[in-house]
TrEMBL record:
Residues 2-337 form the FAD-binding domain. One of its GO terms (molecular function) is FAD binding. Keywords: FAD, Flavoprotein, Monooxygenase, Oxidoreductase. It comes from Amycolatopsis vancoresmycina DSM 44592. This is Oxidoreductase. Transmembrane segments: none annotated. Gene3D superfamilies: FAD/NAD(P)-binding domain.
Length: 377
């Protein structure tokens, strides 16, 4: 058995690592030129009921624990005036330890045999050949043919069309991401508002919100959420960072300056992240020798679960293949049924809040503020 994986994100790399643990070779093809080709996003809370199970299956628990940033499970809820409504400290007992996405990806890469990942291979399409095998085409005319193909290539997967014609749709909301560096000294009021972990603040409606996370040291990573049509965002001049920041900040007129500073005082150009989703409960008929993991299979708007579910998908697919060494189709059917069942049951926001705030009752005002406002993990 040999597995071809398209995409070296967390789902694809977890799949490759757990396959390696079970002695099954794999090749991963990734569009990026190298592991350092771009920023890998911010903080991820890796949950004890899904993401950490994948880490355990990968045999990397000790390495994972070494990446955890202490204190980052702290949470602050503010109103748009900067008034503190709720605060939860991190006593080290929570089940959602925080790590940097880039560190987690590097941990998985370092745990793979040299040469497993083939960088600079941007997939342009895939097709099923007459003999039942699958061919993936890459930029530059390169191709690879495989008996067993796993698409871990995200929202705009080039493998997905082998299984379904369904494509992602815009959900009506987008994040604008920014960073503030050396915040404790250069932006002390904003650093105090965010605190030692994460912060979320809503306005009078859920159409605008600002969330932020403290990453390593005193770096603040902000997610400015706006419910607007794509045409509205298209009218913003993103080629002019100062003008774009001013346009976004104008939507938060009257908010506390320590909050809007996450937009106006950012040390990076604002980056637009529109949210798309696949239909909840999406299924496809079994196609021999091909399947999907992560966002390629069950893309949703950010809800704090995406990276965790991608890793769990990868681990469970690898475990199913290892459990059925002589019957790949049985393995894929077993994996897909579990994945379909899981993705057909959207994350319950009340359950998410309980996991964030413990077993105590979550006040209604906090539920109203937080629903749909999980970080983009």
């Amino acid at each position: 058995m040999h597995v071809t994986i398209i995409g070296a994100g967390l789902g694809g790399l977890t799949l490759a690592r757990v396959l390696h643990v079970h002695g099954i070779p794999a090749d991963v093809y990734e569009a990026e030129a190298s592991a350092e080709a771009r920023m890998q996003g911010g903080m991820l809370d890796i949950h004890d009921y899904n993401g950490q199970l994948a880490v355990e299956a990968a045999g990397l628990v000790a390495e994972f624990r070494g990446l955890v940033l202490e204190g980052r499970q702290a949470m602050r809820i503010l109103d748009h005036n900067g008034t503190l409504l709720f605060e939860k400290t991190d006593d080290g007992t929570g089940g959602r330890p925080e790590v940097l996405r880039a560190d987690l990806r590097r941990m998985l890469l370092d745990a793979l045999p040299a040469g497993t990942v083939h960088w600079g291979h941007k997939a342009t399409g895939a097709r099923t050949l007459a003999d039942g095998r699958h061919e993936v085409a890459f930029d530059g005319g390169r191709t690879v043919v495989t008996d067993l193909l796993a698409g871990a290539d995200g929202a705009w997967s080039k493998v997905r069309p082998l299984l379904t014609a369904v494509t992602p749709e815009y959900v009506g909301e987008a994040f604008v991401e920014t960073y503030l560096y050396d915040a404790d000294t250069r932006h002390p009021a904003t650093a105090a508002a965010v605190g030692g972990g994460s912060m979320a603040a809503n306005g009078a409606t859920a159409a605008e919100s600002i969330s932020a996370h403290r990453e390593s040291g005193d770096t603040l990573h902000a997610y400015v959420a706006l419910t607007r049509p794509l045409d509205w965002f298209a009218a913003v001049d993103w080629t002019d960072p100062a003008a774009a920041a001013a346009r976004i900040a104008a939507e938060f007129d009257g908010w506390a300056p320590e909050l809007t500073a996450l937009i106006t005082d950012a040390d990076t150009a604002p980056v637009l992240r529109p949210h798309h989703t696949l239909p909840v409960g999406l299924r496809w008929d079994r196609v021999p020798g091909v399947t999907l993991v992560g966002d390629a299979a069950h893309l949703t708007a950010p809800n704090g679960e995406g990276a965790n579910l991608a890793m769990l998908d990868g681990a469970e697919l690898a475990q199913a293949l290892a459990a059925h060494p002589g019957d790949v189709e049985a393995a894929l059917a077993e994996y897909e049924e579990a994945m379909f069942t899981r993705s057909a049951n959207p994350v319950d926001e009340a359950v998410l809040l309980e996991s964030l705030f413990g077993d105590g009752e979550v006040p209604q005002e906090l539920f109203d503020l937080m629903q749909g406002r999980e970080q983009a993990s």
